[in-house]
Design a protein that fits this description.
With 390 residues, the chain is α+β, with helices and mostly antiparallel strands. 51% of the residues lie in helices and 14% in strands. The protein has helices spanning 16-33, 37-43, 48-56, 75-88, 90-109, 112-124, 238-274, 286-314, 320-345, 356-366, 373-385, and strands spanning 129-132, 148-152, 155-166, 173-179, 188-194, 200-202, 216-227, 231-232, 276-277, 280-281. The strands form 3 sheets. The protein has a 4-stranded mixed sheet with strand order 1-4-5-8. A 4-stranded antiparallel sheet has the order 2-3-7-6, with no helix packed on it. Helix 7 packs parallel to helix 9 and helix 7 (238-274) packs antiparallel against helix 10 (356-366). The longest helix is centred in the middle third of the chain and has 37 residues, at 238-274. The radius of gyration is 21 Å and the shape is globular. The model has no long low-confidence stretch (mean pLDDT 95).
């Protein structure tokens, strides 16, 4: 069997503009992201310069309205861009997904005045965002969050701690969910907090098993004062805003997972067709051929699932159940595919000479972020069988 280099994904895109967009992304990936990904991840380097380039190229606001500097692209196109970026470096792909998540509350629930004032810089002005929902004692049970926002005249004063914040300490703005009223989901409100707000401090970033180039940190709000003009939506509407954002964000995670899995398959395929044992390429052996076939099938199924959910979203139809399914399946598939890729490479797969060990470490976090896969199963089951009886 001759050596066979992996080919780019043959994408079904709705417009010529979308095809040009993917070409642009692949060019940026090849020139600016992939060549340095392994070295910078190992060094823990956050590629702010890459996010600036993506912003300048119109790639940080793709699913949002052109009126405010967005790309006016359907979600099925935006997600395929995320997949391409994540295949090159998950820190970048996931970072773009988190930034889009952070823009969601303002774009979907802000007033026209708020949108005109803030969205252009957020979508195409070089700013980078973060999303602040989780806390040290409220992760999956997000409705129990304790960070408080207290009204003081025309201002709000925010006090508390947020945890597991991607871009914590480096973001220019934070979409923050804080308690303004009663216990439970009805007492939560969303706010847009500038990254340099007085009283806002980031802890030392977490030391993670993967995605070392993406800072994840606690944020401490010590009497952070912001005007009421930075409240997003109505008082008490924050939890509904958060859930709406997470439905879309889960599709971003699904696309990133497929990107990591595709990168792992490409590496395994290139190795298996080039590595010879017993006088022939190891890809000739049925055991490995079947592994590669299963890996490719999981990737294709995951891609089809997230694109199907995206098309529902683009059509204005309910997609929460499908988003949970896509996040669940794609991230589990990524964990399986990356683990198999390490196995295909054997001892070499366990070394840092090849990227598959990094892919495997990175895939794990995708089963956890934006709702663990156990939470996704709960969401799916509620759609199927209704709420649990108490």
């Amino acid at each position: 069997m001759p050596d066979r280099a992996p080919q780019p994904v043959d994408r079904q895109l709705p417009t010529e503009e979308a095809r040009d967009l993917i070409t642009l992304v692949r060019d940026i990936v090849q020139r600016e992201i992939a060549p340095r990904a392994a070295e910078e991840e190992e060094a823990g380097h956050f590629p702010r310069e890459v996010f600036s380039l993506l912003s300048d190229s119109g790639l940080l606001g793709l699913p949002y309205d052109a009126e405010f500097g967005g790309g006016d692209q359907p979600y099925e196109v935006y997600l395929q861009v995320l997949e391409e970026l994540a295949a090159a470096r998950l820190t970048v792909g996931l970072g773009v997904s988190v930034h889009s998540l952070a823009c969601h509350a303002l774009a979907g629930y802000g007033t026209k005045e708020q949108q005109s004032e803030h969205l252009p810089a957020m979508l195409g002005g070089g700013l980078l965002g973060a999303y602040c929902l989780s806390e040290p004692a409220s992760g999956s049970d997000a409705a129990s969050l304790r960070t408080k926002a207290v009204r003081d005249g025309d201002d709000w004063v925010i006090t508390g701690t947020k945890a597991w914040i991607t871009h914590g300490g480096v973001a220019d703005f934070y979409t923050v969910l804080a308690r303004t009223g009663v216990e439970g989901p009805r007492g939560i409100t969303a706010f847009l907090v500038p990254g340099d707000a007085h009283g806002l401090n980031a802890a030392v970033p977490e030391k993670k098993m993967g995605m070392k180039g993406s800072p994840t940190a606690q944020l401490h709000f010590d009497g952070v004062r912001i005007p009421d003009s930075r409240r997003l939506g109505e008082e008490g509407q924050g939890f509904a805003i958060a859930l709406s954002a997470l439905d879309s964000g889960r599709l971003g995670i699904a696309a990133c997972a497929v990107g990591v899995a595709q990168a792992a398959l490409d590496e395994a395929l290139e190795y298996a067709t080039g590595r010879k044992q017993f006088g022939r390429p190891i890809a000739d052996f049925q055991g490995l051929r079947f592994m590669l076939a299963d890996m490719a099938t999981r990737i294709e199924a995951g891609r089809a699932l997230y694109l199907s959910a995206a098309r529902l979203r683009d059509a204005g139809r309910p997609f929460s159940q499908q988003a949970a399914m896509a996040k669940l399946f794609c991230t589990d598939a990524a964990m399986s595919v990356t683990t198999d890729a390490v196995q295909v490479l054997g001892g070499y797969g366990y070394t840092q000479d090849f990227p598959v060990e990094r892919f495997m470490r990175e895939a794990k976090v995708l089963q956890i972020v934006e709702g663990t896969n156990q939470i996704q199963r709960m969401v799916i089951a509620r759609h199927l069988a209704g709420p649990e009886t108490r």
